[in-house]
Amino acid sequence: MHPISRALLSALVISPCAVAQSPTTPAGQLPAVLVTGKTTADPVGKVLAAEQAATPGAVTLVDGEDLRQRNVTSLADALRYVPGLWVASGSTGDSTFFSARGSNLDATNYDGNGIKLLVDGLPVTAADGNNHNRDVDPLSARYAVVARGANALTYGASTLGGAIDFITPTARDGAANEVLVNGGSHGQRQARATVGTVAGAFDGLLTVEGKRSDGYRDHQRQQRSGLYANAGVQLGDGVQTRFYATAIDNEQQLPGGLTRDEWQANPRQAQAAAAAGDYQYNVKTWRLANKTSWQIDADSSLTAGLSHERQQLFHPIVYAPPYFSLLIDTEQRNTGATLRYQRRAGAHDLLMGLNYGRMTVKGTNDSYTPGTWLQTPFTRVDNSADSLELFLMDRWQFAPGWTAVYGAQAVNASREIRNTSVPGGVLRNPKADYDSINPRAGLIRQLTPAVQLFANLSRLYEAPTTYELEDDARADGSTLKAMKGTVAEIGTRGSLTEGRHRWHWETALYWGKLSDEILSREKPGAPGTSLSMNAGGTVHAGVEALLGASLALDDAGTHRIEPLVNATLNHFKFKGDTVYGDRDLPAAPKYAVKGELLYRHASGFFAGPTFDIVGARWADFSNTYKVDSYTLWGLRAGLSGQRWEVYAEARNLADKAYVSLFSVQDKAAANAAILSPGEPRSFYVGARLKF
Length: 691
Hints:
Blueprint: H1 3-14, H2 43-53, E1 59-63, H3 64-67, H4 75-78, E2 85-89, E3 96-100, E4 116-119, E5 122-123, E6 143-148, E7 162-167, E8 178-184, E9 188-199, E10 202-213, E11 222-236, E12 239-252, H5 260-265, H6 272-276, E13 282-297, E14 300-320, E15 324-345, E16 348-369, E17 374-399, E18 402-416, E19 419-421, E20 427-428, E21 431-448, E22 451-462, H7 466-470, E23 483-498, E24 501-515, E25 518-522, E26 530-534, E27 537-552, E28 559-575, E29 591-601, E30 606-614, E31 617-618, E32 626-627, E33 630-640, E34 644-651, E35 659-662, E36 675-677, E37 682-690
Parallel strand pairs: 4-7
Antiparallel strand pairs: 1-6, 2-3, 4-5, 6-7, 8-9, 8-37, 9-10, 10-11, 11-12, 12-13, 13-14, 14-15, 15-16, 16-17, 17-18, 17-19, 18-21, 19-20, 21-22, 22-23, 23-24, 24-27, 25-26, 27-28, 28-29, 29-30, 30-33, 31-32, 33-34, 34-37, 35-36
């Protein structure tokens, strides 16, 4: 057995046994659990305790306050310490590839399906499941809840990877007026300011941001500006409504992929075609949303929400004259609605919910000439998708220290592609409907108020996105099937205090078998376009662990050492596939370990090393092109006062050349231009002022 695997499995089995028993919770009362270093005296800790006390599976919370103590410009930075996720950035800040429990192991750097993203409980993932072109700013979150895999039933999510809900701050929950600035290597400079007010029944909060970067490769500049606002009104006893508005203008150049020889010779260069074709990724986003909550009585509540978003995409992505060029010029519109009713009845805590989404994509796929930007449409796009998710869940504390969590989700989804050729007028119109009932059952054993064991068995189901349906590799007019499967999970989480020392952990072991998994591979000779297929059988399994401590070095606890390790082992394979046999799935590493070892002083000073240990990955389904493992080292330090804090961070101190992400192919040639280099040696500083 691999040494890391042996250590994590030992933690999974031994950790709860090291904690002394204490009185269990009375029947009918959901327990409060102290986990992952947070305490229920902390408002964010209360949220995490409630989420984990009611979920028989892996749930991690990312605290927005922690993100402000290091350089965070992307989801890859923000989700660094979430086990079970593989998140990588290889272009500029908003170009992030993310996978949870093996979701999205195909269209690397192209699409982001497999995880449902929400902001304040309302979807920003489109109705068809894609996160393409999404703009989620992690620094605009007070905290984020990451529910992996089938544990996202709480959100009604029908995805292989689960859901992430980014909760934004409000003036009423104590968000401070503040200014944040940071800058450093590769021309990075970022600034944001937040102001808020509370006046009787009204409160409002406004954040404006600006970000610029030259990038660590040629043709990698980015400029982004954003506005985030929310305003709430207390309408009466137990009733409140809140409005949200977002506007983002993001423009970034794309440097393209390199061959292995190009990467080894000069990883900072751009792909020749990307520079000549001026590849870009420009998105303008506008979003309005409302959420109204009614606390009916002490035991029941009702929440309703609506959201509408428009995204204008300008995306030159392929330039190979005189044969082919591609510029995507489309507008995507998404409308979402959610309804949740919760009621406690004795030992039962019932949750019923509904999610509905409607998406349209209209515009053209064009050939183009860079510089002059002369566009000639060759396809008119008119795609649409609907999605309805109904879910019912009961948390039943049937005995002291025991909670059964069971429920089901019903999914109804439709997809339609209407691509009309120009000038011939030939219509390509694949369309399909998808329906499924997905049950789930789990068990939570409360060993002590601070320690849990959990287990669950769940059905997974995910319909194809319109991008996948549009890129179906078959030419017989049939449509892709939805992927489906079953996953089992066991784990433990909790915290332990012994004198002046504190430990916390969350570990999970899962195994899932899928059929008809939807996988895409890059189309040879046409970078940025893909071919999709249904695989036969696949297996998704792994071990996830987040382990941390705060150890006092003196009797007063003035000096402390705080280690934190996020370790993930992945086992993603084809199972008896007619084409790929039992080969490994590409894109995700066999293992990934990220951590830090900080010294903290009671004065607010901290400093220490960081590290990343990432295993090898395959870049193709045929397992002929391997991307090597790598190890990175860094340092971070900071100092905080009552109304201010500063930090400094150094990354990749050894200036290691490594591959961050890549495009997946069927069988990659030795000279395939698919590699995106990772960040070289870099230095950043930042400051925060509250007023």
